[in-house]
Amino acid sequence: MTTHALPTGIWRRECVAELKRSWRLPQFLLPTVVTPGAFYGLFTLALARDPTPASVAAGLAGYGVFAAIGPSLFGFGAGVAIEREQGLIELKRVSPMPIGAFVAAKLAAALMATALAVGLIYALAIVGGAVLTPAQWLLLALIHLGTTIPFALIGFGIGMRMGGKGAVAIANALFLGSAVIGGLWIPSRMLPGWMRALGEATPAYHLGQLAQAVVGAEPLGAPLVHAAIVAAMTGLAAVWAWTGWRRSPA
Amino acid sequence: MTDDLSAIATLTAVTKRLGSKPVLEGLDLAIRAGEVTALLGPNGAGKTTCVGLLTGRLAPDAGTARLFGLDPRRPAVRGRMGVMLQTAGLPDVMTVAEMVALQSGYYFHPRPVAKTLALAGLADLGERRCGTLSGGQARRVQYALAICGRPDLLILDEPTAAMDRGSARALWATVREAADAGTGVLLTSHDLAEADSLADRVVVLDRGRIVADDTPGAIRAQVGGSVIRCRTRLALAVVHAMPGVREVEAEGAELRIVTRDAPTTLCRLLDADPAVTDLRVGDATLEDAIAALLAPPHRIAA
């Protein structure tokens, strides 16, 4: 591989610029930040017959994963596809900027949106009576923020292969589909068998089960197995993203 | 061509196909330091493909593309190049100065942002968001992004399309200045006046092959002679048979006649049709020369 030097600070400046750009597009940022919290507040707190600290925490685990999927799939999938149509990717491709800086910047923006969305859910959970130890909070936050990575890679692969409209539709379908079959809204053990089986093919299910284990709800299967499957799926998603970048002319 | 020591960007025996259709066939092209090379030709001639190969977005099917002796697909090699594409966009919510500052950060020895803005005629627009710019202003931002890193090679794809004449002239002056300071420039253009006034060398592409590669003056001289424009009731074929005529073409209601002997052709023309109107005689321009070089159906050849 090449060992050519590039000026220092490219990655950092690219990230700062991307964060600024997201911040200046509240019409995109707000819905991804607010929607998961609104769902969580409505279904787990307001409409639940008899919320207990345990049920509030169990809901928190799944909704947090859901909250992280949105910014990754929309920021990367739909966002990248739209930017490609506007010629913004082409502008970057002919510049000396390394692709890594571009992906890191998009990831930083997705992480910012995820942190806001997840933070809102955590605040609601605390108000709703969830009690977790600092270690549990930390692990949970790691899983929820980490959810961004596989879904960002999946989104990037979609964005490099499809037009803006198609990518938005696919992102929506994956976002809501993962939430349902991945057991993020309704616990997987309450889903019909075929749905659960389908869900097991998504990283959403395994991340959801990991989060369940952290908050003390009984997960289906061993956490380590879930972690290994998430790692393998992330690897596949990376290949999908990389091949998408390579074959796209712009 | 490619053993030329001052060549900083080369295409050597390059063939590129789009599906089964060849877009470029065994093409050799060298861009030299300190020289403005204009790449001209009708739509579909392969200009954009040449730009794509040199900027590393396309890989040749056969032959090699080299930038400073290396593969243009390596990002660090592109650190010595500035590119202004027709198809590139700008993010609406970022300001002009923010974009120029970000792009400048990709290069080792960029100009100060204020200096780049001034050179591109954007001194008063630095704080404007890109989404509020006119088409011509956005082109100037693209130009600023191309020159901010003081590149050794500048690739300008239709730089002055959508610009008013004043902005275009100002841009030409800065391109000329950069070339005089040693930058190699590759320019594609539909504007032949632009190529004529700016280029040291004109390369004419037609259907993936080079049909001319020379100075603008030498290319004009290949056609030689003059161009007569007039309104006449005479048929093309009749005019075509007159002495000295090399080429005849209908331009709207007028005829454009390229001749190597204007006095003789004029006498015969006025003899044949004393009612000729709107008669003008001028030197053959670069446009006339290139029209003569292109294969049919672009012209009626003598």
TrEMBL record, chain A:
<keyword id="KW-1133">Transmembrane helix</keyword>
<feature type="transmembrane region" description="Helical">
    <location>
        <begin position="137"/>
        <end position="159"/>
    </location>
</feature>
<dbReference type="InterPro" id="IPR051784">
    <property type="entry name" value="Nod_factor_ABC_transporter"/>
</dbReference>
<feature type="transmembrane region" description="Helical">
    <location>
        <begin position="103"/>
        <end position="131"/>
    </location>
</feature>
<feature type="domain" description="ABC-2 type transporter transmembrane">
    <location>
        <begin position="17"/>
        <end position="211"/>
    </location>
</feature>
<dbReference type="InterPro" id="IPR013525">
    <property type="entry name" value="ABC2_TM"/>
</dbReference>
<keyword id="KW-0472">Membrane</keyword>
<feature type="transmembrane region" description="Helical">
    <location>
        <begin position="224"/>
        <end position="245"/>
    </location>
</feature>
<feature type="transmembrane region" description="Helical">
    <location>
        <begin position="28"/>
        <end position="48"/>
    </location>
</feature>
<protein>
    <submittedName>
        <fullName>ABC-2 type transport system permease protein</fullName>
    </submittedName>
</protein>
<feature type="transmembrane region" description="Helical">
    <location>
        <begin position="166"/>
        <end position="186"/>
    </location>
</feature>
<dbReference type="GO" id="GO:0140359">
    <property type="term" value="F:ABC-type transporter activity"/>
</dbReference>
<keyword id="KW-0812">Transmembrane</keyword>
<dbReference type="GO" id="GO:0016020">
    <property type="term" value="C:membrane"/>
</dbReference>
<dbReference type="Pfam" id="PF01061">
    <property type="entry name" value="ABC2_membrane"/>
</dbReference>
<feature type="transmembrane region" description="Helical">
    <location>
        <begin position="60"/>
        <end position="82"/>
    </location>
</feature>
Automatic annotation (TrEMBL), chain B:
<protein>
    <submittedName>
        <fullName>ABC-2 type transport system ATP-binding protein</fullName>
    </submittedName>
</protein>
<dbReference type="Pfam" id="PF00005">
    <property type="entry name" value="ABC_tran"/>
</dbReference>
<dbReference type="InterPro" id="IPR027417">
    <property type="entry name" value="P-loop_NTPase"/>
</dbReference>
<dbReference type="InterPro" id="IPR003439">
    <property type="entry name" value="ABC_transporter-like_ATP-bd"/>
</dbReference>
<dbReference type="GO" id="GO:0016887">
    <property type="term" value="F:ATP hydrolysis activity"/>
</dbReference>
<dbReference type="InterPro" id="IPR003593">
    <property type="entry name" value="AAA+_ATPase"/>
</dbReference>
<dbReference type="GO" id="GO:0005524">
    <property type="term" value="F:ATP binding"/>
</dbReference>
<keyword id="KW-0813">Transport</keyword>
<keyword id="KW-0547">Nucleotide-binding</keyword>
<dbReference type="InterPro" id="IPR050763">
    <property type="entry name" value="ABC_transporter_ATP-binding"/>
</dbReference>
<feature type="domain" description="ABC transporter">
    <location>
        <begin position="9"/>
        <end position="232"/>
    </location>
</feature>
<keyword id="KW-0067">ATP-binding</keyword>
